[in-house]
């Protein structure tokens, strides 16, 4: 059974929200940032688009510096390369900086004749998967807040 602390750790974390480009990671990142700021936490909201690995590396490094200094760094990313995202996770781990990867699933499509989302590679080992059916409501926000509380990043 997981033991939870009653108080947040006061440490920073990078929360990397990833999914295909149309799943709403940006809106979710902004909503979570507003909620956390309203509760008094130091928060930075960053984003990448379907950018090359170098852009993912730059945003990952920025998030790492922020998280290492006690900020909750929320990153919205449609970056398709799982290996580039894994490199960001590994860099955080080697510097002793907390990192959580959240995969936001794409809703089932009636048809995808050209395979637009085939370039996107889901995470190899996400810390959390937000099911597609949770995205249409505030449920995804609640799921994320619970993850942060369970990991003692927030109360």
From TrEMBL:
Keyword Isomerase in record: no
Keyword terms, alphabetized: Kinase, Transferase
Keyword Kinase: yes
Domain named APS kinase: residues: 12-109
Pfam families: APS_kinase
EC number of the protein: 2.7.1.25
Domain of life: Bacteria
Entry's Gene Ontology molecular function annotations: adenylylsulfate kinase activity
SUPFAM superfamilies: P-loop containing nucleoside triphosphate hydrolases
Enzyme class (EC, first level): transferase
Protein name as annotated: Adenylyl-sulfate kinase
